[in-house]
């Protein structure tokens, strides 16, 4: 009896492993093809200042929506691209496409504030990322201060000393730097003094149960006042309700993004959020000295 049950369990286990390996292979094949044929698209989610609900930026989030195939999100494919080292190929495309789109909007007289893109920790480790960003800016003609790069706190910690030098090289280009998923990195906070970052993005796990959860409320308050003391702006991710919005604004949190405002949308829909470019801004402003 026990033996039979044991064998059954074993067979189930190997079968599910095989299925997992097969679907991984299928995904890998699909991703390689999508990279080759440039079938990825960027969707955009708006970032708002809480004080006046003014649009301050757009976060570009990559999507794979191929005709006839089920759409897949980055949470599913980014880890695989990181494993196979292809994330740098995707990263290069994302950087160019975001810069191109930003420049195109400016040329239409539309103001989006800044465009933020996400960098993978692998893009810190492999060189050339800063060179690639410089090239994308130059080729597109997007002013550097219109671009923001998001790096996760855990990704930065993983890269140790290398991260600091990397961030300084990027900052020297005139782009802004933001720490993504802030609060989840189990790090010493000492790095905040050394890293040239302008924004902390509070991870949505701290926002979800606001304002009711007293622990989360305390943590978010601490992050907001820490940002204020360090002169770094603080944005809350994952704001879904008016109660969260009101609470964060009452704390003096600078900005927010989330489904309460809008989920990520394709570029032609994101267009409707943009304001006319003020005459003073129509010509590229000089980047502030790093
Ligand atoms: P992230 O950078 O922290 O992006 C925020 C994620 O939260 C996005 O998921 C967004 O759709 C989702 N989100 C926004 N507002 C809400 C909300 O109110 N509630 C909830 N539940 N979720 C919300 P998405 O687009 O699936 O992206 C997941 C992650 O994949 C991103 O997290 C980022 O780490 C990564 N990613 C996305 N695009 C890129 C990319 O171009 N390059 C790299 N390296 N990573 C990317
Ligand atoms: Mg992000
Ligand atoms: Mg995040
Ligand atoms: Mg995240």
From TrEMBL:
Domain EAL: 24-278
Superkingdom: Bacteria
Organism for this UniProt entry: Leptothrix cholodnii (strain ATCC 51168 / LMG 8142 / SP-6) (Leptothrix discophora (strain SP-6))
The protein's name: Diguanylate cyclase/phosphodiesterase with PAS/PAC sensor(S)
């Amino acid at each position: 009896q026990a033996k039979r049950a044991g064998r059954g369990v074993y067979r189930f286990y190997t079968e599910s492993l095989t299925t997992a390996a097969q679907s991984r292979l299928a995904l890998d094949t699909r991703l390689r093809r999508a990279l080759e044929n440039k079938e990825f698209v960027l969707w955009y989610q708006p970032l708002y200042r809480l004080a006046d609900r003014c649009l301050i930026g757009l976060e570009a989030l990559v999507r794979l929506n191929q005709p006839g195939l089920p759409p897949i999100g980055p949470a599913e494919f980014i880890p695989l691209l990181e494993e196979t080292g292809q994330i740098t190929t995707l990263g290069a495309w994302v950087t160019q496409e975001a810069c191109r789109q930003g420049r195109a909007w400016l040329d239409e007289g539309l103001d989006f504030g800044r465009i933020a893109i996400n960098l993978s920790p692998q893009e810190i480790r492999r060189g050339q990322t800063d060179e690639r960003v410089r090239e994308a800016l130059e080729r597109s003609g997007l002013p550097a201060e219109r671009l923001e790069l998001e790096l996760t706190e855990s990704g930065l910690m993983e890269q140790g000393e290398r991260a600091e030098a990397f961030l300084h090289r990027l900052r020297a280009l005139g782009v802004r730097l933001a720490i993504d998923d802030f609060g989840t990195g189990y790090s010493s906070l000492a790095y905040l003094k050394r890293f040239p970052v302008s924004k902390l993005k509070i991870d949505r796990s701290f926002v979800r149960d606001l304002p009711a959860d007293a622990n989360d409320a305390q943590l978010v308050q601490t992050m907001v006042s820490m940002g204020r003391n360090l002169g770094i702006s603080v944005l809350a991710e994952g704001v879904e309700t008016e109660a969260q919005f009101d609470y964060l604004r009452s704390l003096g949190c600078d900005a927010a993004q989330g489904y309460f405002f809008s989920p990520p949308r394709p570029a032609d829909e994101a267009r409707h959020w943009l304001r006319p470019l003020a005459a003073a801004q129509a010509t590229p402003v000089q980047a502030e000295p790093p």
